[in-house]
């Protein structure tokens, strides 16, 4: 992942792409990767309710609603206004522009795991809004879809945009695979080129990072369900640790 907002960093170890001065460093990394015939996609995230909290220069948490995150339980997020949502959308747009300028082969918008700002907006457990950015699935998806539309306008139709989604949040009151399939169709209609299917929620981190001993390719079934409803490519992660598993 890479931060789109320098005033609310995800943590001190995550790369940043929140300012133009970072582009030369990204280009150096991208060029080194391309020398080995590999591709690089910048996964864009806004920390939202879980920004770096041990740095006094960082601003406080923000979210869809004033619902604290399990990673930041003592700090109540500021619920964004519509104008503030537009400002954050521009952060994603600027980050995507920088990734393209640096030579990245695409960008991926992180919208999974109750993770970061967009993950919180699509979570019924964290989004309690009663305006157009809350309520049913169309309301929960309004902000992420606006981000995709704005990025697409910036980078053009031929530049790949993907979305990371959770197959299911695996929590009471969270998103189900049926919800995610509907979300995937909405993202596809908004011009998303492919999906990166993960799973779970940061409320229970083992659902996101399955530990040793869990069956291989644990999220492949979620990817299969999503592939049934979209025409674009679908990839997945989760305990794919051997070549033969990847081939299957």
Please give a structural write-up.
- The chain has 248 residues and is α/β, with parallel strands linked by helices.
- 33% of the residues lie in helices and 13% in strands.
- It has seven helices and nine strands; from the N terminus they run ββαβββαβααβαβαβα.
- It has helices at 23-34, 82-101, 116-121, 137-155, 177-189, 220-227, 243-247; strands at residues 2-3, 15-16, 41-45, 62-63, 78-79, 106-110, 161-166, 194-198, 234-236.
- Strands 2-1-3-6-7-8-9 form a seven-stranded parallel sheet. Strands 4-5 form a two-stranded parallel sheet.
- β7 (161-166), α5 and β8 (194-198) form a beta-alpha-beta unit.
- α2 runs parallel beside α4 (137-155) and α4 (137-155) runs parallel beside α5 (177-189).
- The chain is globular.
- 39% of the residues are buried.
First-to-last CA distance:
27 Å
* Contiguous helical run count: 7
Beta-strand residue fraction: 5-15%
Beta-strand segment tally: 9
- Overall pLDDT confidence: 93
Helix fraction? 25-40%
- Spell out the helices and strands N to C: EEHEEEHEHHEHEHEH
């Amino acid at each position: 992942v890479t931060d789109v907002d320098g005033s609310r960093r995800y943590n001190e170890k995550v790369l940043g792409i929140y300012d133009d001065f970072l582009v030369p460093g990204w280009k150096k990394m991208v060029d080194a990767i391309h020398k080995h015939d590999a591709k690089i996609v910048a996964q864009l995230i806004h920390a939202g309710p879980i920004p770096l909290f041990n740095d006094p220069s960082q601003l406080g948490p923000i979210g869809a609603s004033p619902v604290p995150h399990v990673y930041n339980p003592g700090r109540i997020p500021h619920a964004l206004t519509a104008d503030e949502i537009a400002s954050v959308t521009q952060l994603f747009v600027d980050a995507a522009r920088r990734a393209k300028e640096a030579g990245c082969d695409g960008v991926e918008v992180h919208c999974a795991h109750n993770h970061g700002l967009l993950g919180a907006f699509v979570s019924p457990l964290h989004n309690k809004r009663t305006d157009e950015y809350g309520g049913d699935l169309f309301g929960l998806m309004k902000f992420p879809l606006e981000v995709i539309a704005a990025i697409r306008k910036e980078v053009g139709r031929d530049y790949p945009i993907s979305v990371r989604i959770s197959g299911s949040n695996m929590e009471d009151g969270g998103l189900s695979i049926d919800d995610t399939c509907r979300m995937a169709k909405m993202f596809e209609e908004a011009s998303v080129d492919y999906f990166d299917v993960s799973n779970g929620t940061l409320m229970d981190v083992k659902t996101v990072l399955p530990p040793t001993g869990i069956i291989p390719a644990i999220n492949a079934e979620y990817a299969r369900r999503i592939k049934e409803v979209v025409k674009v490519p679908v990839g997945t992660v989760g305990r794919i640790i051997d070549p033969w598993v990847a081939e299957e």
